[in-house]
């Protein structure tokens, strides 16, 4: 199961290597803030409760020829989505820090820089 840092994702956006961004957060949160070109499949609450069936039923909506990057609030529930995608044969990763990490990256906040260092040290 892979992980991608916000800076790495940003470098790939708009290139031939752009992944599919699967934002699993509830629609209301997605509507408030989302990464450009992401698609919303609101299965966050189901996955958080341990129910993977909704995401599994919707896998046919995703291309199987590109990497899928799962996005949630903080990256925790997206790890579950990434595991489901991996199990189904997709090349999948989790956005480290989720939307919180992405927003921190965009602002170049001190907390983001510290978390980014931690992520890189952990490998």
List keywords for this structure.
123 residues; five-stranded parallel beta sheet; globular; Oxidized Rhodanese, domain 1; 7 helices; alpha/beta; 47% helix
Per DSSP E runs of 2 or more residues, the count of β-strands stands at 5
The total tally of domains equals: 1
Strand content: 5-15%
Give the class from helix and strand content and strand pairing: alpha/beta
Q: Quick check: average pLDDT?
A: 93
Number of helices: 7
Shape: globular
Sheet with the most strands, sense and barrel status: 5 strands, parallel
CATH superfamily: Rhodanese-like domain
Low-confidence stretches: none
Strand order of the largest sheet: 1-5-4-2-3
Helix fraction by DSSP (H/I, runs of at least 4): 40-55%
Report Rg.
Answer: 14 Å
Order of helices and strands: EHEHEHHEHEHH
Question: Which fold name is given in CATH as the topology?
Answer: Oxidized Rhodanese, domain 1
CATH architecture: 3-Layer(aba) Sandwich
CATH C-level: Alpha Beta
Describe this entry's structure for a reader.
With 123 residues, this protein is α/β, with parallel strands linked by helices. The protein has a single domain (2-122), classed as Oxidized Rhodanese, domain 1 (3-Layer(aba) Sandwich). The protein is 47% helix and 14% strand. The chain has seven helices and five strands; from the N terminus they run βαβαβααβαβαα. It has a five-stranded parallel beta sheet. α6 packs across α7 (110-122). The longest helix has 13 residues, at 110-122. It is globular, with a radius of gyration of 14 Å. The two termini are 13 Å apart. The model has no long low-confidence stretch (mean pLDDT 93).
């Amino acid at each position: 199961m892979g992980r991608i840092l916000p800076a790495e994702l940003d470098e790939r956006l708009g290139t031939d290597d752009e992944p599919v961004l699967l934002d699993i957060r509830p629609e209301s949160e997605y509507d408030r803030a989302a990464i450009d070109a992401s698609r919303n499949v609101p299965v966050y609450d189901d996955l958080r409760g341990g129910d993977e069936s909704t995401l599994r039923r919707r896998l046919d909506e995703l291309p199987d020829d590109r990497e899928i990057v799962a996005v949630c609030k903080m990256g925790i529930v997206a790890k579950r989505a990434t595991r489901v995608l991996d199990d189904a044969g997709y090349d999948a990763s989790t956005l480290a820090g989720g939307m919180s990490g992405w927003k921190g990256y965009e602002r170049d906040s001190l907390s983001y820089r510290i978390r980014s260092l931690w992520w890189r040290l952990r490998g």
